[in-house]
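Section 5: illustrative case.
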């Protein structure tokens, strides 16, 4: 557009120059024709006139000739001046054209640089938006990781509490099992005592049978003396006492045997139940230990992931800050380019 205006301006100057040149040529021709007519008239007058008229005509012709010569000189000087002005004007136009071409090249480069800066700004804004989205995703991941870490910590605390409870129950069951073993030992001792009681009862029964036989023999021997009768009575009383003692011993032995059988059955049931509970608790303790180890491992992994996310977050924030600084610098450069372009347009318009 500016180059077209310059071409139009050059065309106008050229037309003006042509008009001035034509006008000068017309003036020159008019002056020449008037001079020729003057000279022709003067010649004819000198040829047909008197000597007195010849003198006055010569004076007039010489004055007109000098005036015409001066005018011709002035015309040539004016034409030379016009040519000088035209040469200077053409030189100025050439310099202006070169300057304009240089300014257009600078303007084109500035526009290209401006477009590149706009593209870089757009790309950086897109990258900033992408980084902001990534930052938001990282913040969400960090929040989710923290929440999972808190849940895992709570689960770990619950597992530790359950493990402590199970450990306490396990210790109680071990103590109960120890008491059951002691009770079984006591039952075995009672069984040994019971066997002793049975042997004593058997001995007493044998003694009673022997006494009964002896009493029968004494009854058959009525001819024995009173001493033997007294001994018989004593033996009978002793037999009655022994029977009473035997009944008491048998009842007590049966009671103890029944108690021991009940305690034995109950102890065996308790031992079986305790062994099952111990097995179950050992399995639970093993599972809880494995779960606790897994929870600690997950906690360590979550802590490592948290540190990694924090490093990525700091890196993203630093990159965003760097891009914002670069964006601000590019915006300032863009404003300077726009200001320079505006000043250039003002200069071209003026």
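Designed sequence:
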């Amino acid at each position: 557009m500016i180059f077209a205006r310059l071409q139009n301006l050059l065309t106008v100057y050229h037309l003006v120059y042509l008009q001035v040149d034509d006008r000068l040529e017309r003036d020159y021709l008019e002056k020449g024709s008037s001079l020729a007519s003057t000279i022709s008239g003067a010649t004819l007058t000198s040829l047909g006139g008197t000597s007195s008229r010849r003198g006055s005509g010569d004076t007039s012709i010489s004055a007109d000739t000098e005036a015409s010569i001066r005018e011709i000189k002035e015309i040539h000087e004016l034409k030379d001046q016009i040519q000088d002005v035209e040469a200077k004007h053409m030189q100025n136009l050439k310099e202006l054209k070169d300057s304009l071409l240089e300014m257009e090249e600078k303007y084109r480069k500035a526009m290209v640089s401006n477009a590149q800066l706009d593209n870089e700004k757009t790309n950086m804004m897109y990258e900033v938006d992408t980084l902001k989205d990534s930052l938001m995703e990282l913040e969400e991941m960090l929040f989710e990781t923290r929440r999972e870490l808190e849940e895992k910590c709570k689960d770990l605390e619950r597992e530790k509490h359950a493990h402590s409870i199970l450990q306490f129950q396990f210790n109680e069951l071990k103590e109960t099992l120890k008491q059951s073993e002691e009770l079984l030992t006591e039952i075995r001792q009672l069984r040994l005592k019971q066997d002793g009681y049975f042997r004593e009862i058997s001995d007493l029964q044998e003694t009673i049978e022997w006494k009964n036989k002896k009493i029968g023999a004494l009854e058959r021997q009525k001819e024995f003396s009173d001493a033997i009768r007294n001994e018989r009575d004593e033996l009978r009383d002793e037999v009655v006492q022994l029977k009473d003692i035997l009944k008491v011993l048998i009842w007590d032995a049966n009671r103890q045997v029944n108690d021991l059988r009940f305690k034995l059955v109950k102890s065996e049931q308790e031992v079986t139940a305790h062994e099952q509970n111990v097995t179950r608790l050992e399995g639970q303790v093993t599972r809880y230990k494995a779960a606790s180890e897994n929870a600690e491992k997950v906690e360590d992994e979550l802590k490592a992931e948290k540190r990694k996310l924090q490093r990525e977050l700091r890196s993203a924030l630093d990159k965003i800050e760097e891009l914002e600084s670069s964006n601000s610098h590019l915006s300032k450069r863009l404003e300077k380019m726009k200001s320079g372009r505006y000043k250039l347009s003002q200069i071209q318009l003026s």
